[in-house]
């Protein structure tokens, strides 16, 4: 009897949550029940499918390219909200342990950031896969393929990321030794990363669900889902864990997992019960993978390589600094926690336009609307560059002020004032480079994009090993590897963009000639009659 009452309570709470999250579904469901009877339900399903397909296309073509691009940024914008959420969490941790001289919380953020970010970027890889392929299938009128592909994404991500963390766990201690983490922090650092590692599949599922909403043109649902998860994390779970329960550092990273599990327990059943325009079912999870799915995994590789590009050089630089300035190892780790937070903002802010461009551009490319594709491309570059130019001077000129929000000792502020500005000198070049990367993905050249991302990783990795040998008396000069890499990548992307641009230019001319021929034939036909 008690279990039945609990089940009823859960059902009521779930329905109430669904009604708040998706009011349109309840309106549509009530209209459906009033209009459908048993005799014409089959014909209605066929009409509903056609209407859904038309509605999906209409979301991408109803407005101008700029308006569509901005509408579609609502979903990716939530990635920036998540970064802000992580920043607020780190600030709360800083406040919680500010007066505790024995706490190593901020040091753990510096030494373990790469491990924590692994789960987030793994989720972004599948986010990019689903936002690239599903709109493309919609543009090609392959609605059934889009549906099965969605189920494939959930199944494939679960199979991989339910096994991967176990192998990843055994690499923790060697990694901590490599970056110069003091031995007395090993156990605390391992406990600090347990939740992000073994909850990795939850983070992947969450980002995949965000991408699903964006792929079907429901950017509002995508934004709402992200906001609710972030509010739960930063405003409920984290404060309760830190200030009410006064948990140890072992539980600091658990709030993100708790918040996302709460949201997914509501949305995943809705998706697989067919409550949206793309209607995957549980049966699709045991069907063979679509032939496009293995190839689509290449689309996610640039994200993973980008993560390596973001993670590997700071790891090598951190190792160089902690080994050359041993007496300041903990202070350097704390400064790197702030550097990683700023890097996330600088990468995440322009990316909101490029994730939107991938979604909109994929539909335009699938329907061969190349003029609209290039319009998306131009607006994405312009908007992202304007955003970057707004906050780049602040980071370069007032880095000590920004670092002072999280750090408190004079040693940490002094190191931050030297280290933080250098990587952001050429930040204004990154929007153009990221736009080219997104363009290569949209036109079905993920290997080109992966090559450019690999070049970025190689430049940063090799440079981080060469510069310390050149500037032996000033180990902080190793941070100059970032501006040098931006200049090299500008040339690499310029070369890689030439062949696809020439091909698309030829296709545009052929389309124009075909349309002119059609007009001439129609005019002759009309003249006869």
TrEMBL record:
Chain segments annotated as transmembrane: 63-81, 108-134, 154-172, 192-215, 227-245, 257-276, 297-318, 376-397, 447-467, 487-504
Localization per record: Cell membrane
GO MF terms, alphabetically ordered: antiporter activity; xenobiotic transmembrane transporter activity
Principal localisation: membrane
Pfam families: MatE
Membrane topology value: Multi-pass membrane protein
GO terms under cellular component: plasma membrane
Keyword terms, alphabetized: Cell membrane, Membrane, Transmembrane, Transmembrane helix, Transport
InterPro entries: MATE_fam (IPR002528), Membrane_Transporter-Flippase (IPR052031)
Signal sequence, start to end: none
Domain of life: Eukaryota
Family, as annotated: Belongs to the multi antimicrobial extrusion (MATE) (TC 2.A.66.1) family.
Protein name: MatE family protein
Source species: Tritrichomonas foetus
